[in-house]
Amino acid sequence: MTATLSTGTPARPAPTPRRAAPGRDERTRKNHPAWFLVPAFVVLGVFFFVPTIFNFVYALTDWSSFKASISFVGLRNFADLLSSGTLLASLRITLVYAVLVAIFQNLFGLLLALLLERDTRVNRFARVMFFIPVIMSALAVGYVFQAMLKPDGAVNGILGTLLGTDVTIPWLGSTTWTLLVVALIHSWKWMGLSMLIYLAGLKTINEDVLEAARLDGASSWRTFRDIRFPLLAPAITFNVATALLGSMNGFDIVQATTGGGPARTTELLNIFIFRTFGQGLFAQATTMSLVLFVVVVALAFPVIRTLRKREEVL
Amino acid sequence: MTAQTAHPSALTSARSRATRPTAGGRTGSWRTLQPIVALLAVVVLIGMPLWIVVVTAGKTQAEALNPNLALPTTWQYLENFSAVWDQGRLPAGFFGSLLIMVPAVIGVLVLGSLASWVLARRSTRGYAVLYALAISGIVLPPAVVTIVLLLRQLGLAGTAVGMIGVYMGMYMSTVIFFVTGFVRTIPHELEEAARVDGAGPLRVFGTIILPLLVPVLSTATILICLYVWNDVFYAFFVVGGRLDTLPLNLFQVASAGLYLNNWHLIFAYVILMSLPLLVVFIVAQRKIISGITSGAVK
Question: Is the predicted ipTM greater than 0.90, yes or no?
């Protein structure tokens, strides 16, 4: 490994003594030819980078399905979206949704991992069952919950039977709480994946360390708080980062449960993009897509860096 | 703490074997209670929603108006399944999804591993920059609107080729990230041996490297299949209305069905479309679960 790292520094002797360093450099070039990169980078370039660059260009135009020509309008799209309040509203909703999902998906995943930690037959069965939502289509999950959470749906029915009264909570009709409900559904769908990652993380913790803590008389809560939780840091980094990215790019579950309603209080950036694109307002959709891009860049990197730093402290 | 560990070590190991994975020093009552709690959680959190799907899909429209836990009075799975089979163009959706997923996954894995091998083995500053660029797509969201514009300019709008390209572009970064990390753990000597025998780079890659990549590639395959098979957002923009995929057709069935309160048809469709992945998962669950966990944590 270190040998390759220093390819090109002539001072370092090559593994085969007969060869001089420049010769080895050339051999590396021949053994691992650069053209192997070309197909992957062509695909990345055409289908990923060029559209991303276009994003910055077309957000500044009046591109729409109503006009044949596309002309430059400067920052008018941003000004329009800002003054109508849509931009900040969608942005706030997306961020709140992402934070809620990151919290609940990790909380549920961690609780499940701790509950199903022992390698018994029951636990293996339970792990498989909790993974089923992960392989289901998010759209399908959304429709199932829409049916269950109707005012006269199954959830209210069961609550009513348990409480002995009629329950008609409009789970998906509240302008305040529906965002939370939808975030919980998103967390339900993906908690099985977080659970698996946490289970893998728990397995890497040395049994002797836990035994030592036990002999010291530490309670299970203290062992968890002071030893197991800190040692889960890599799993937490992975899970929080994927949950944040997944929910910032969220669409299916919200579209299938509320479609952005009631009164657009669950309209994530991607729902807005989908809706305005459908109306033919391509430039507005592009502008929002650019906003999403900038927000993800601005948020993801600091979050990942902070989480990584926490790992290093250990 | 370390001092404590060191003391009567015989006792420690004996005890740890006796109480093995009771991580956290739980008492005996928890050991008997835990399976009950676990099963209860499965029944309430997973069993109930799935049960509602299964029973509602067998009901008549009137009975399915408010989906609940009750069994159907008359079972009509066949009628409902055949209704969505035709109305939801289920066969077309299935083959459409397959037609897009298979080439996209194979393509992204082959091209991604080819690039990863070189990125892992060559490490000048230029390659470090290329690597950073190549994995940037893990974090960056795809520019979904302008992809449509670009595909129109290329004449690929609404085609399977366009959709395949978009998925390959989206997941290339994930593949390169996973595979490059894995290649770095493969010793150089293995390649050298083949090279001494006169094998060219393509042969070395195909006969030495690729077979060693199987574990990491199977993890990537599972995850990417999951995302591509279930994706509806990007499919809307690229092939919406032009090609059938299972999620796109579900959206159509549901959009019409919600309006008409056809929950029985929506749920019948959900069952049929989930079956292929569910069967694959149940058959290979052990491999899939261990594949995902080994791939994700480092």
Answer: no
